[in-house]
Design brief:
single chain, 78 residues, mainly alpha, elongated, signal
Length: 78
């Protein structure tokens, strides 16, 4: 679940957002959550060039496919 907030171009709360243009408050995840380890032999590791994996975890971005892949080790179990 997520909170949908209407903001002005300056980032201030606004009532100017048409309801028809707002994204849904709830949406089923596109990713498949496997309880089993990777079936292929790829080692789960954070991509070396990515130094922001602790921030990915802190801001709860592990549910997003790209970040989960780039920060596999950091996101394991989250």
């Amino acid at each position: 679940m997520r909170t949908v907030t209407c903001l002005s171009y300056t980032g201030q709360p606004s009532n100017e957002c048409p309801e028809s243009l707002r994204p849904a408050t709830m949406q089923q995840c596109e990713s498949k959550c496997d309880a089993t380890p990777n079936s292929n032999n790829d080692e789960c590791k954070d991509v070396n060039k990515v130094a922001y994996c602790p921030l990915v975890l802190k801001f709860k971005f592990c549910s997003r496919g790209y970040f989960r892949q780039m920060c596999c080790k950091t996101c394991q179990g989250h």
